[in-house]
Design brief:
- By secondary structure, the chain is α/β, with parallel strands linked by helices.
- It has 2 domains: 231 residues, 3-Layer(aba) Sandwich (Rossmann fold); 77 residues, Orthogonal Bundle (Arc Repressor Mutant, subunit A), CATH 1.10.10.
- It is 33% helix and 22% strand.
- A hairpin with a 2-residue loop joins strand 13 and strand 14.
- Helix 2 crosses helix 3, helix 8 crosses helix 9 and helix 9 crosses helix 10.
Length: 374
């Protein structure tokens, strides 16, 4: 039988053992071991974000740009590489000029043509601080890692530092299976060893069933500091949208639009013109609103989301910051009779049609005022 402590005894024990977090300011606390630090002693030395591209990508971070085949990932990456190396602004945001390494296994001649197309289209030479691998890359792999490490040391010795490494693509530069968490972790660990102080951009494909997320193991998005989805929004005009789906410590950036433009480069031996594509930022582009009404199942999912948001607001200390876990919302939709695979598919459609927005692991109605709608 458990003994019952009376209130008087409980009060005596509390008085006899005061909370140990209150310290005498005149007594110097012992230094912690090297593995840890005392947080209070470092709060006055915090630094603001160190941007590679202001408001988009911090220096020394890892992130992904994912999108379907032929949507323009490589053209966008070439544009970013050339502008970072030249110190030119990207989507109106200033950049930190730095050397760039483009690790590409897919279509070496095609990548060279894209760099040449960027140079001709922009009337600016590609800087000598942009490098591209010429030997197939497979990570983790001892021989590949040695070759890349030699390349990094060469670039750092000549340019002072390596600011950006672009992996085109994740699936073609990793040796394991991107669906397996252990293989993905091994790949990310290899990148961390090779580029400890460099921003790493991974070009990646979307999921097979859910196009609103990157393909493969969840270890990849969990490890990323930032993530962008690239998708086509206007087939006729070749307009693509860069949608910021994750930022670890800063606010999500607004959507940015580019147009894929053909750039002629020359005439081949048979007298036919050849060329490539470039990604041109559309400063004043306004996306057309989705005109298709939600289906009955979509309306049911939105109703569940509004209800879940209202429930979270009732429980939260600050109702204005109440958030709903995407997994909880999908589970609630299944409880309402929607099949799990249908819920996942419709989630992607609602996201694409701008009915919802996803911030990391949380989901919300695109129009926050809808949460109070019955």
């Amino acid at each position: 039988m458990y003994s019952k402590i009376c209130p008087a005894e409980d009060a005596v024990q509390t008085k006899a053992h005061p909370v140990q977090t209150i310290r005498d300011d005149n007594r110097k606390l012992p230094e912690p071991p090297p593995f840890i630090e005392r947080v209070s002693e470092h709060l006055l030395t915090i630094k603001p974000p160190d941007w590679l591209i202001r408001s988009l990508i911090e220096r020394g971070t890892v992130g992904t740009v994912f999108g379907d085949w032929n949507v323009g990932k490589s053209a966008l990456a070439v544009n970013i590489a050339c502008r970072v190396a030249s110190g030119l602004p990207i989507v109106g945001q200033p950049t930190r000029q730095a050397a760039v390494l483009y690790v590409g296994n897919e279509g070496a001649q095609g990548i060279r043509r894209r760099f040449f197309a960027w140079q001709r289209h922009n009337g600016t030479n590609v800087e000598g601080s942009v490098y591209k691998t010429v030997i197939p890359t497979c990570l983790p792999d001892n021989q590949t890692e040695k070759g890349l490490l030699d390349a990094v040391r060469f670039i750092e010795g000549l340019h002072g530092s390596l600011g950006l490494a672009i992996m085109d693509t994740t699936s073609s530069t990793m040796g394991g299976d991107q669906k397996h968490g252990a293989d993905m972790n091994a790949y990310l660990n290899a990148l961390g060893q090779l580029f400890p102080n460099t921003t790493v951009m991974l070009l990646h494909h979307p999921g097979h069933g859910d196009k609103s997320r990157g393909r493969g193991a969840s270890e990849l998005p969990a490890a990323c500091d930032w993530e962008f989805q690239l998708e086509r929004v206007a087939d006729f005009d070749n307009v693509i949208r860069l949608h910021n789906t994750k930022q670890r410590d800063v606010a999500l950036h607004r959507d940015v639009y580019f147009q894929l433009l053909s750039q002629q480069l020359g005439i081949d031996d048979e007298g036919q013109p050849y060329g490539s594509v470039v990604a041109e930022h559309l400063h004043d582009y306004v996306a057309a609103e989705a005109s298709k009404d939600p289906s009955p199942s979509q309306r049911k999912m939105l109703k569940v989301l509004r209800r879940s948001t209202n429930e979270e607001r009732k429980l939260a200390l600050n109702p204005d910051v109440a958030r709903v876990l995407t997994s909880d919302w999908l589970d609630a939709c299944v409880d309402e009779g929607i099949k799990p695979e249908t819920a996942r598919r419709l989630k992607g459609r609602l996201l694409k049609e701008r009915q919802i927005k996803i911030d990391g692991i949380y989901v919300a109605a695109q129009d926050a005022s809808q949460a109070d709608t019955p």
